[in-house]
From TrEMBL:
Residues 23-176 form the Glycosyltransferase subfamily 4-like N-terminal domain. Keywords: Transferase. Gene3D superfamilies: Glycogen Phosphorylase B. This is Glycosyl transferase family 1. The keyword Transferase applies. Signal peptide: none annotated. GO terms for molecular function: glycosyltransferase activity. Residues 184-349 form the Glycosyl transferase family domain. InterPro entries: Glyco_trans_1 (IPR001296), Glyco_trans_4-like_N (IPR028098). One of its GO terms (biological process) is carbohydrate derivative metabolic process.
Length: 380
């Protein structure tokens, strides 16, 4: 029996959780054929925190300053690891790991290099585009995690084209999500929400880029016509004080609920009657997919990473940061009867099943790795 193919999955920082798509890539690579090591440039699990499902994990423990500027120490240690282990495939997530691997690969000559780009904007700088064009070789494949990210890569002028760049949609484990989700009544009881009122819901860290302030401003415009409606936000962060001030300013106490951080927040999705994602920027909108898994109508801003998904699933879109336009979309949902809202939620769920199922995600990464290895063998 031939030895297994050695794969290194390289990530910027430790962040292993139940929704971690890097872990799903590992699961998509059959253990009888692939030997996977996962490595994190920064961070490591604390006591009781989950570890990667890969047989071996490496925590470089670099500081933030180690990964700035020339990064010579970090590059040297990564070079030594790859040289000693002779990986045949490296899957690098996000700009810094991709860039480090690009810089090292002329000497390492790894047969198949796959860069997974999770967001938009990393190649806006002219120097980064020039460097990518100079370093990009035939053994590289780039993955955009959505149509918007793929289109950005193809159009940014960094040398990425239809021959080396593919789209593999981000995904969630729908069966797991549905298995975790509580009924509407139980979820509301667990969150301390009243059973009766129509409730808009959002999930995300309380930081400015998530746009919650615009959601609260929009919701405030509904209070005269829909005094019973409520808004619930699951998440915690540095914007809490600003959001609390907005709630007080609009006299929305008791109608807008900041519920704090919750483990596996998707288990509470069915507490909501509609799901809202007002982000100003978003790379991997998993929370939106989790909202769809609850068969809810979905509303989101028209940023590049959300708009294609919302358009394809029959969701509702508003201009980013426009509280008045968002309020109109919320009103439109409130005007629907129960049957119409259910139909809208079912359309979103059907789209989720067709475009973002975790089984397809795993299969596509497996195929990409096999194709990359096959192309390299054919050229050698």
């Amino acid at each position: 029996m031939s030895s297994r193919i050695k794969v290194l999955q390289l990530q910027a920082r430790y962040n292993v959780n139940a929704s971690d798509l890097a872990e799903q890539i590992i699961q998509g690579l059959p253990a009888e054929r692939f030997e996977v090591t996962t490595a994190f440039l920064r961070g490591r699990p604390g006591s009781g925190e989950p570890e990667s499902r890969a047989p071996r994990s490496i925590y470089f423990g670099f500081s933030q300053s180690d990964l700035k500027g020339l990064r010579l120490r970090a590059l040297w240690r990564l070079y030594r690891l790859c040289r000693e282990e002779r990986y045949e495939v490296v899957i690098a997530h996000r700009f810094k790991p991709i860039n480090m691997l690009m810089l090292l690969n002329p000497w390492l000559r790894i047969p198949a290099c796959i860069g997974v780009q999770h967001g938009i904007g990393d190649f806006d700088r002219a120097y980064r585009r020039w460097e990518a064009r100079r370093l990009l070789a035939g053994n590289w494949r780039l993955v955009g995690v959505s149509r918007a990210v793929r289109d950005y890569l193809l159009g940014c002028g960094a040398g990425f084209d239809s021959g080396n760049t593919v789209q593999i949609n981000n995904a969630i484990d729908i069966e797991r999500a549905e298995g975790l989700q509580h009924s509407r009544e139980k979820a509301r009881a667990m969150l301390g929400l009243a059973t009766e009122p129509f409730t808009f819901g959002a999930i995300g860290r309380l930081v400015p880029v998530k746009g919650h302030i615009h959601l609260i401003e929009a919701f405030a415009k509904l209070q005269a016509d829909y005094p019973q409606a409520q808004l619930a936000i699951i998440g915690e962060g540095r914007s809490r004080a600003d959001l609390e001030s907005a709630i007080e300013r609009h006299a929305l106490q008791g109608r807008v609920h900041l519920l704090g951080a919750r483990e596996d927040a998707l288990q509470y999705v069915r507490a909501f009657d509609a799901f809202v994602m007002p982000s100003l920027s978003e790379g991997l909108p998993l929370a939106l997919l989790e909202g769809m898994s609850g068969r809810l109508p979905v509303v989101g801003s028209d940023i590049d990473s959300l708009r294609p998904i919302l358009e394809d699933c029959g969701g509702r879109v508003f201009p980013v940061g426009d509280a008045e336009a968002l309020a109109e979309q919320l009103r439109a949902i409130l005007r629907l009867d129960t049957e119409q809202r259910n139909e809208e939620g079912e359309r979103a769920y059907a789209y989720l099943r067709s475009a973002h199922a975790i089984e397809d995600f795993r299969r596509q990464y497996h195929q990409l790795v096999e194709q990359a290895l096959g192309a390299e063998q054919a050229s050698s």
